[in-house]
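Lab notebook, page 48
Experiment: co-folding of the full assembly
Goal: obtain a model of how the components sit together before planning crosslinking
Operator: M.T.
Materials (sequences as entered):
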Amino acid sequence: MRVLFFAQTRDATGTAELEMKISGSLGVKEIWRALIAAQPKLAAFRGSTRLARNGEYADSETKFSDTDEVALIPPVSGG
Amino acid sequence: MEIEIQITVQPLAAGHGLPDKFSGNAGAFAEFSGIVRALENGQKIAALEYEAYSPMAENEMRRILETLAEKFPCLAARVSHRTGIIPVGETAIYIGVTAKHRAEAFALLAGFMDRLKQDVPIWKRCSLTPEEFAASAMARN
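Observation: model returned without errors.
Model output:
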């Protein structure tokens, strides 16, 4: 699974992306658990940061697989 | 509704005007430019830096425009968002909306800007002081 970091999450992890191996089909909670295990500093962003799966916001029903691209979307501020 | 979306590091044009193809059919053309101001949180700055998750940002902008167009039918919308370092006085975002009537054009434009600031993955990353901006300009040249 390719994981993309933007804005504050990129600053915190010091990287723009990483590869993470997951098995089966995981929900948002399990993905967060795996992300925080890989990058403990992400714990601080869990309450404010949304996940996207293949370019669309994830919700409580979303399932992630190993071939997906996951992006961490901190609060946005465009315009 | 015809939709055109662009995310670019290049400077944006000040305005585009009514697309020729809608001349005679459109009764309204509304455009908005969001411009970098010289004060950010009370501090004098020379530029802002934006970053985007471009593929998703383009998809989200299109989705927002399509959703709004169901309620406020318009003929066309053109959006450009600039990323990278944007000097004070230059345009960060431009939207031009063509419609038959002004009410739909105004409503779609205002609704889009509100939703952009909630859902579109673009970030105002940092402000650059005049000294920092000068140093970044030297580094780019």
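Interpretation: Chain B has three helices and nine strands.
Next step: discuss with group before ordering constructs.
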